[in-house]
Write a structure and sequence with these properties.
Layout lengths: L2 H8 L15 H9 L15 H10 L6 H21 L3 E5 L7 H10 L5 E6 L2 H14 L4 E6 L15 E5 L12 H10 L6 E7 L4 H7 L6 H17 L8 E8 L4 E8 L3 E5 L4 E5 L4 E8 L3 H8 L4 E8 L5 E8 L8
Parallel strand pairs: 1-2, 1-4, 2-3, 4-5
Antiparallel strand pairs: 5-12, 6-7, 7-10, 8-9, 11-12
The structure holds S-adenosylmethionine.
């Protein structure tokens, strides 16, 4: 029997024993579906509770994690050209996290003599509150609001716009499964008017050793970030995961052009997740997938843009082509009923 067959067989969950404990929350519903899948997984959005958000911020400072500093340098270099083209009345950052990158664009908006409005959209309320407070302190001239919400389903919380520059930075698009990217980008485009722009930060395909190192930092911060997801399920769903019984794995899979991140069981175990009505029997070596991080090329992006209503307008990279910042323009509506 192959390892994979063993994993699938052992992942078969037991029926829930006490349905009175099943919670009616997005996390409970999502986990009930994803842990019951043929290959158990947990949606990556739940990585970002307060501790997870702080750990992600720490990841961005690790020497192996070239992504953040490379993207920041590209933004520094090209912010004026991006702002000149987009001429935005409003910046909207999706998944803004600490909101550390937006000041570079705010400065460019200021240099261009434009009035600045900023909306930060995030799943984590504490992150929103902290970054809204920081922008108010450091850029008192900017009218800033925070929206707690989940993309893509709650993007309508942004309300009507116009002259928007939407930022989706930090390689966050890479966490979408490739098959979901066109639908995801279409949803984002629907929150934009023709002529609005979307700025995407994309990590690029490169030497697998560097890619894997970025997700296996020597200090173990990414491992703590992944394992924290089990604490989220223990706290929110009354699960009894023992984090010490799992190890963090992050591997490059060239055929999918992604780093696949998972928690691998160190031993056979039986885990109960009462809030989601799931019981999981895991064999040693079996994995719970927590995240993918897709790595892009320019043709891959162009292919995924087809039919989304967005067209590539500017493509900026660093000298080593490690990372790209792509400006996409929302095209005129082909279907005016949309
Ligand atoms: C990879 S981090 C990037 C953070 C920041 N934009 C950067 O460039 O460093 C992804 C961010 O998106 C947020 N996030 C993840 N999934 C989300 C979702 N479905 N809806 C809203 N925010 C989400 C996380 O809380 C986190 O702050």
């Amino acid at each position: 029997m192959t390892h994979e067959a063993t994993a699938q067989e052992s992942s078969e969950p037991d029926p829930p024993r006490d349905s009175s404990k099943i919670l009616d929350t997005p996390l409970a519903r999502d986990v009930a579906t994803s842990l019951r899948g043929e290959r158990p997984s947990i949606p990556c959005r739940y990585l970002y509770d307060d501790r997870g958000s702080r750990l992600f911020d720490e990841i961005t400072l690790q020497p192996e994690y070239y992504l953040t500093r490379t993207e920041e340098a590209i933004l520094e270099q090209h912010a004026d050209a991006i702002v000149a083209r987009a001429a935005p009345h409003e910046l909207v950052e999706l998944g803004s996290g600490t909101g550390k990158k937006v000041p570079t664009l705010l400065q460019a908006v200021k240099r261009a003599g434009m009035p600045a409005k900023l909306v930060l959209f995030e799943i984590n309320a504490a992150m929103i509150n902290a970054s809204v407070a920081r922008v108010k302190r450091e850029h008192p001239e900017v009218q800033v609001t925070g929206v707690v919400g989940t993309f893509p389903d709650e993007l309508q919380r942004l309300g009507p716009g116009g002259d928007r520059l939407v930022l989706f930075l930090g390689s966050t698009l890479g966490n979408q499964h490739p098959a979901q990217v066109p639908g995801f980008l279409t949803r984002v485009a629907q929150q934009m008017h023709p002529g609005d722009d979307l700025l995407l930060g994309l990590d690029l395909v490169k030497d697998p050793a560097r890619l894997e190192a970025a997700y296996n930092d020597a200090a173990g911060v990414t491992a703590s970030f992944s394992l924290n997801l089990l604490s989220v399920l223990n706290r929110e769903l009354g699960a009894d995961f023992d984090a010490s019984a799992f190890e963090h794995v992050a591997v490059w899979e060239a055929e999918s052009s992604w780093i696949r991140i998972a928690l691998r069981a160190r031993r056979d175990q039986h885990v109960r997740v009462p809030g989601a009505g799931v019981e999981l029997r895991l064999r040693a070596g079996q994995e719970i997938q927590t995240e993918v991080s897709c790595k892009y090329t320019r043709p891959m992006l162009e292919q995924r843009l087809a039919g989304t209503g967005l067209a590539l307008d500017q493509w900026h990279t660093d000298a080593h082509e490690d990372f790209a910042v792509a400006l996409l323009r929302r095209e005129a509506d082909a279907d005016p009923t949309r």
